[in-house]
Design goal:
- The protein is 44% helix and 11% strand.
- It has 75 residues and is mainly α.
- It has a two-stranded parallel ribbon.
- The protein is globular, with a radius of gyration of 11 Å.
- The chain starts with a strand and ends with a strand.
């Protein structure tokens, strides 16, 4: 069974489904994801594409990293 990341879901929901995403997103550049309470507050309304815009990280780079870690991307 492949792991599918639905980019329309919140970061909170994605990390709840795939806990390893917390470390992967931190590695990509979302370093605040490990701050206490971040997932339960901003993470509930933030999506990966919105966070990418805020952080100035190219979505193509994020997709390549996620696919390299065995995830499929659903847009």
């Amino acid at each position: 069974m492949s792991k599918v990341i639905d980019l329309s879901k919140s970061v909170h929901d994605i990390c709840k489904e795939y806990p390893e995403m917390i470390g992967i997103l931190k590695e990509i550049g979302f370093e605040n994801i490990t701050a206490p309470g971040m997932l339960k507050t901003a993470g509930r309304i933030m999506t990966i594409p919105k966070g990418a815009v805020m952080k100035g990280i190219e979505m193509q780079k994020i997709k390549e990293i996620l696919e390299g870690k065995g995830f499929s991307i659903k847009e």
